[in-house]
Amino acid sequence: MSAPSIAVRVSEVAAVTPLVKRFRLEPESGGRLPAFSGGAHIAVEMQDGAHRRRNAFSLMGSPSDTTGYVIGVRRHDNGRGGSRYMHERVTPGTMLRIAHPANLFPIDGRARKHLLLAGGIGITPLVAMAEQFARDGQPFELHYAARSPEHAAFADELLERFGPAVHTHFSAQGRRLACASLLAEQPLGTHLYVCGPETLMDEAFASARALGWPEQSLHRERFAAPARGLPFAVRLARSGRRVDVGADQSMLEALEAAGAPVASLCRGGACGQCETRVLACDGTLLHADHYLSAAERGAGGKVMPCVSRFAGRSLTLDL
Amino acid sequence: MPETSIKSRPVYGTLAPQPGTRHILLADGDGAAAIVDLARAAPPEFFERAHIITAPAAGAMAVRAPLRALAPAVLDETDRLAAALSRLAEVLAGAGMGTRLYVAGTEGTIGQAMQVALDAGVELGAIATEHRGSRARRVQCAHCKTFIDEVTTQPVACSGCGLMLFVRDHYSRRLAAFQGVCVDAEEPGSAPTPEEVFT
Amino acid sequence: MTITFRRETFRDDYNFSNSAVGIRRFPFPFDRDHYMYAVNIEPHVKGHPGTIYESLIDVDEHYVAEMQDRALVLAEDPLRSQSLPHMELAGWDLLELLMEQLAAGYPAHFELRRSGKRWRWVNRPLGIDDTFVFGAASTLPYGPMEYITRQAQGDFCILDQRDGNLWMDAGMVTTQADWSLDFDLGMNFMEWHAPVPRAHEMGVFDRALKFMLNLGQGQPMRRFNWTMTVNPRLDTSPETYPKWGPDRRSVTADNVGDKVHLRVELQSFWRLPRSNAIVFPIRCYLIKLEELVTVPKWARRMHRVLRDLPPDLVDYKGLTRWRPIAVDYLAAFDDGAATSPGIWPD
Q1: What's the whole-number mean pLDDT along residues B134-151?
Q2: Which InterPro entries does this one have (chain C) (predicted)?
Q3: In angstroms, rounded to a whole number, what is the distance separating the alpha carbons of residues C201 and B7?
Q4: C189 — contact with chain B (CB < 8 Å)?
Q5: Chain C residues near residue A106 by CB distance under 8 angstroms
Q6: Nearest-CA distance A181 → chain B (Å)
Q7: Which three-class secondary structure state does DSSP give residue A13?
C-alpha cells in the first residue's frame, strides 16, 4: 500500500527555542488538507540532493484547522539528518511532499478524563490532543516536564490557551514531575497519554501499573527514531540486486531510493506495515522496532527495515 | 466451568490479588467461596483496602462467616442481586483509578456486575472474574428484547413474547446476555422439546 | 449522470426488480467456479462507467425505494440505528464523507455547499434541503450518523480503534444478512465475527484485523461477501426472523427463478480522519436468479458454486431448505463449458 502524497508549501517557520522550530505547511494548490485526530503524525519527504529522506512528525495544530498543518521539530545533530535538514534548509516557500495523516497514538474517546504527560519535544502530539479536548469539551489535564522554562517549547502559549489545565514541571527549579503521586489521585475512567523520553514513559507506565491501572488506560507514543549506524548491504532475492544502505539512511529509505519500495506507515518500528521476510542472514539482525515479538526476533525470519539494521557478511530479503 | 466454543463466549479465570489501591469484591452465594480462596494468596494488607459486596444466597450463614473472618474494610451484605448491583454502582461512582473489581458467581451475576462496572468507566483489564455455581444463562430475546434470567433449557420459551428461542453461544457484554433466536420461525410449531442443558 | 429511480418494494408485494442496465452492473462476486472464505481485500478505487465502481459511494436505480424501506424499518425498530456516546465525532466524519462523495459522484442529484461550519445539503431525490452547523448535532433532525445514513444505501458500521482491536460502537443496520446491531453493538472484531464458521480456524480474522488496524486515511479498501435470500427482502434481521423465516419454505421449481435472490455485499473500509475510527459500509445488491441467468457466464458459475458449497456454509448462510431446487434450476443453464477468469460478463 503506497500512500498518495500531498504537495505542501512551507508558509511559516519560527524558532521557538534554540533547538526547536515550528513549521506551518499549507496545501500547494490551495483548498483544504485532510482533517486529522489528536495524536496523528505525518511523514514528510525531503529531497536532500540525491538523497530522499522521510521523517515522521506529530501534528501539533488544532485538528479543526484544515487550512494548514503545524509541526514542531527538534534538531538532533547526531541523528540521521532529517531534523537538521528541516532546521537548515527549509524556509518559507519550500515545497515538500507529505503523506496523509496516520495515528498510532490515538485518543480513547470513552475516557472520563484525559491525563497528558509530556517530556521535552514529546509535547507536540499532546498539543493537538489538548486542542481536540478543548473543542469537544472533554476534561483533560496536561503536565509538561522539562529541564527549565527555556527548554519547554510552546509552554507559554499552552498556558495562555488552556490556563489551569496546564501544569509545568521544571527539574532545574527543583519541581520534578512526580508521576506516582499524580497518578494516585485520578478519578475512575482516566486515561493516561505519555510522550517524551523513554525514561519518562517507562516511569509513568511503571507507576500506573503498580497502582493498578489497567493496560487499556495507558497510551504512549511509540516512535523509535531510526538510528544511525554502520553502512551495510542487502541482497534482494527476486531481482538479485544489491542495495547499499548508508550510515545516515534507514534500510527502508535505501530500498525506496533503489526503486524497491516496501509498504510503510509509521517509519518508526511501531505499526508492522513494512515487515519484510528474511531469506538468508549470515550475520546479526539489529532489531530496533517495537513490533516483532521476542520469539519472532529469535526465529530470525522477519525484519522491520524502517528502523532495524544489519551487521555481518550478507543479508537476503524476500523482495 | 462452561466450555469455550465461539469467540464471543466469555472466558472466566480464577480470582487472584492484583496490584491496586482499592479492591471491590462482589460475589453471589456460589461465588463467595472464590473470595475465600483468593484470600489464601492475598498479602496481609489486601483486605484493609477491600470492600466486599455479597448478593442473595451469600447471606446464608455458611458463607457469611468466612467472609466476615476476612475482616475487609467494608462488608455489604445485601439480600438481592439488584441491591448488590446498585451498591456496586454507588461505590464505583466515587472511586478512583487503581480500583480493581473481582466478581465471582454465576454467569448472570458476573455479566451484570461487569455491565455496571463498564458503565462506570472501569476498563475490562481492571475486572477479574471467576465462574462458580450453576451454568444457568441470562438470555435476551432477539424479537421482543425481553431478558430472561436463569435459563437452563435449550430451547427456552420467551417470557415476553412466548416464542421458543434457541440460545446461541453468542454473548453481549453490553447487554450481559446470550442471544435467543426463534427456533421454529421457518416452520412454526416444529420446536424441539426443551432439555435441561445449562445446569 | 442522471438516474431514473424505480418505484418498488422490498416487503409485502415485493415488486423489486433490476432493469437490463441494472443487471449488467450487478457485482457478481465469484471470480472462479468454487467458493471459499477469503480475506480478498483490494483498494477501493474508481472503475469503469457502467459498473458499481463508477463512484466510490454507489447510488443506483433502487436508491429512493431503499431509503423508504429503511424509514419503515426504523419506524418499527429504532434500535437499528445506534451510536455509543463517544462515537458522535465519527458520525460527523461519516456525514462529511458521504456528502462529499454523493455530491461529487451525482451532482444532478446531490449538492453540498460549505461556508465555514455552516453547510447546506441538498438531496433532490428525497426532497431534502437542510442548512446546519457542522459539529453541532442540535442543528440536525437526527444525530449526524443517523441523519446521513437515512440518505445513503447500504448498512454502515462505525468501528472505534483502541487496545489493538476494533469495536463496533455505532451503526445503521437495516439491510443485513441475519445479524443484529443491537446485539453486537460494543463488541470487538473477533466477538462480532464469532458466529462465522471456519474462518477463525483459518486465521482469516487475525490477518484481516491486523490489516484493518493499519488502514490509511485516503486509501479505502473493499471486499465482497455474499449470501442468498428468498424474496427481495432487504431487512433479513434476527429481530424479524419470524416474519421472513417461513418464506424459506415457499420456494418451488416454478417460482425459484423469481423468488431466490443472490445477495452480494460490497464491504468497504474507510479511515475516518477526525475520530480515527473506521467506517465499514456494507452495501447490499440483490439479483433474482432469473435475472442472473441472462448472463451465461454467471449462470454456469453460480450453478457450480452453489452445487459444491460445503455443508456448514450452506447452513450458516441459511440455504439448506431450498438449495436443491435452486441447483436444479441453475443446472439447466450450465452446459459444462469453461468460464473465463474474473467476475465480469463475457
Answers
A1: 95
A2: HODM_asu-like
A3: 11
A4: no
A5: 161-162, 276
A6: 12
A7: strand
How far is A83 from C207, CA to CA, in rounded Å?
35
Is residue C147 within 8 Å of residue C94, measured between CB atoms? no
The minimum CA-CA distance between B174 and chain C, rounded to whole Å, is 6
Q: What is the rounded distance in angstroms from the CA atom of residue B95 to the CA atom of residue B122?
A: 10
C319: closest chain B residue by CA: B186
C158 in a structural domain: yes
Residues 6 or more apart from A163 whose CB is under 8 A from it?
none
**pLDDT of B85 above 90:** yes
Residues of each domain in chain A carrying CATH 3.40.50.80: 113-220
Q: How many CB atoms within 10 Å of residue C284?
A: 23
First to last CA, chain A: 15
**What ipTM did this prediction achieve?**
0.92
**How much is the pLDDT for B1?**
34
d(CA C209, CA C211): 5
- % of chain C exceeding 90 in pLDDT: 82
C-alpha cell at A86: 528541516
Cell reading at B154: 435449550
All three cell numbers of A82, joined, read 532529517
Identify the active-site residue in C223, C248, C307, C321. C223
Q: How far apart are CA A22 and CA A38, in angstroms?
A: 17
Domain range for C43: 20-26+38-251+264-289
Shortest distance, CA C235 to any CA of chain B (angstroms): 14
Q: For residues A230 and A238, is the Cβ–Cβ distance under 8 A?
A: no
Q: How confident is the model at residue C214 (pLDDT cuts 50, 70, 90)?
A: confident
Residue C72 lies in a domain: yes
Handedness of CA C294, C300, C303, C309 (dihedral sign): negative
Examine the domain organization and report whether B28 and B124 are in the same domain. yes
Task: With beta carbons under 8 A apart, name residues in chain A contacting C87.
Answer: 109
Residues of B in contact with A186 (CB under 8 A): 96-97
| CATH numeric code, A5-99 | 2.40.30.10
The Cα C96–Cα C277 span in angstroms is 14
Q: Label residues A187-217 b or e (16+ Cβ within 10 Å = b).
A: ebbbbbbbbbeeebbebbbebbeebbbbebb
Q: Is C223 a catalytic residue?
A: yes
Architecture (CATH level 2) of domain A113-220: 3-Layer(aba) Sandwich (3.40)
Q: Do A189 and B120 touch (CB under 8 A)?
A: yes
- A262: closest CA among A233, A236, A285, A232? A236
Closest CA to A288 of A310, A312, A313, A264: A310
